[in-house]
C-alpha cells in the first residue's frame, strides 16, 4: 500500500484524490489518509502530490504512518474531489515533523 505521511499535514493539496482509480482517500481536518485495504498499489498518486507526502510503505520506517492511515482510513469520510487547498498550505510545505510539533 501507499501511505500519506507527515508532509501532508496543513498542506492538504488534494491533487492525490483526483487520480486515485479506487477512490481510497479519506479526509481529516488537516490531512488526508489512504485506506490501506483499498489501495491497489498503482502508485499514480505519488508523483501528483506537490508536498511529496505519499510514499510506498515498502520504504521502511513508515510503520507509524501505516497505522495512522489504517486507523483514520476507516473513520474519516471519503474524499474524491479536489477542493481549494488551505490558504497557508505553501507556508507549511517542507516543514519538518509537523505531526510532532503540532499535534502531540
Ligand atoms: Fe490510490 Fe493508487 Fe495511490 Fe493507492 S497508490 S492511493 S490506489 S492512487
Ligand atoms: Fe496531502 Fe499531497 Fe494529497 S499534500 S492531500 S497527500 S496531494
Describe the structure.
With 104 residues, this protein is of the alpha+beta class. The chain has a single domain, classed as Alpha-Beta Plaits (2-Layer Sandwich), CATH 3.30.70. It is 25% helix and 12% strand. It contains four helices and four strands, in the order E-H-E-E-E-H-H-H. The strands form two sheets. Strands 1-4 form a two-stranded antiparallel ribbon. A hairpin with a 4-residue loop joins strand 2 and strand 3. This is Ferredoxin. Its cofactor is [3Fe-4S] cluster; [4Fe-4S] cluster. It holds the Pfam family DUF3470. InterPro entries: 4Fe4S_Fe-S-bd, 4Fe4S_Fe_S_CS, 7Fe_ferredoxin, Fd_C, FdxA, RnfB_subfamily. Ferredoxins are iron-sulfur proteins that transfer electrons in a wide variety of metabolic reactions.
Quick recap of the structure?
Ferredoxins are iron-sulfur proteins that transfer electrons in a wide variety of metabolic reactions. With 104 residues, the chain is an alpha+beta fold.
Sum up the overall morphology in one term: globular
Q: Order of strands across the widest beta sheet?
A: 1-4
Which ranges are low-confidence, i.e. pLDDT below 50, for 5 or more consecutive residues?
none
Which cofactors or ions or other ligands sit in this model?
iron/sulfur cluster, FE3-S4 cluster
Q: Using the 3D structure, state the CATH architecture.
A: 2-Layer Sandwich
State the separation between the terminal residues, measured CA to CA.
26 Å
Report the average pLDDT across residues.
Answer: 96
Number of domains: 1
Supply the number of helical segments. Answer: 4
**Element order, helices and strands?**
EHEEEHHH
Q: What portion of residues is helical?
A: 25-40%
CATH fold name:
Alpha-Beta Plaits
Classify the beta-strand content into a percent band: 5-15%
CATH class: Alpha Beta
* Helix/sheet category: alpha+beta
Rg computed from alpha carbons, rounded to a whole number of angstroms: 12 Å
Task: Please outline the major beta sheet.
Answer: 2 strands, antiparallel
Q: What is the count of β-strands? A: 4
Keywords: 3Fe-4S, 4Fe-4S, Electron transport, Iron, Iron-sulfur, Metal-binding, Repeat, Transport
Biased composition (Basic and acidic residues): 81-100
Domain 4Fe-4S ferredoxin-type: 1-29, 30-59
Protein name: Ferredoxin
Amino acid at each position: 500500500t501507499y501511505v500519506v505521511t507527515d508532509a501532508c499535514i496543513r498542506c492538504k493539496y488534494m491533487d492525490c484524490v483526483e487520480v486515485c482509480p479506487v477512490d481510497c482517500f479519506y479526509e481529516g481536518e488537516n490531512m488526508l489518509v489512504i485506506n490501506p485495504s483499498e489501495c491497489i498499489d498503482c502508485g499514480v498518486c505519488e508523483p501528483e502530490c506537490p508536498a511529496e507526502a505519499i510514499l510506498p510503505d515498502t520504504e521502511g520506517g513508515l510503520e507509524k504512518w501505516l497505522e495512522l492511515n489504517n486507523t483514520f482510513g476507516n473513520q474519516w469520510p471519503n474524499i474524491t474531489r479536489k477542493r481549494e487547498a488551505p490558504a497557508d498550505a505553501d507556508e507549511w510545505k517542507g516543514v519538518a515533523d509537523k505531526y510532532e510539533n503540532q499535534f502531540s
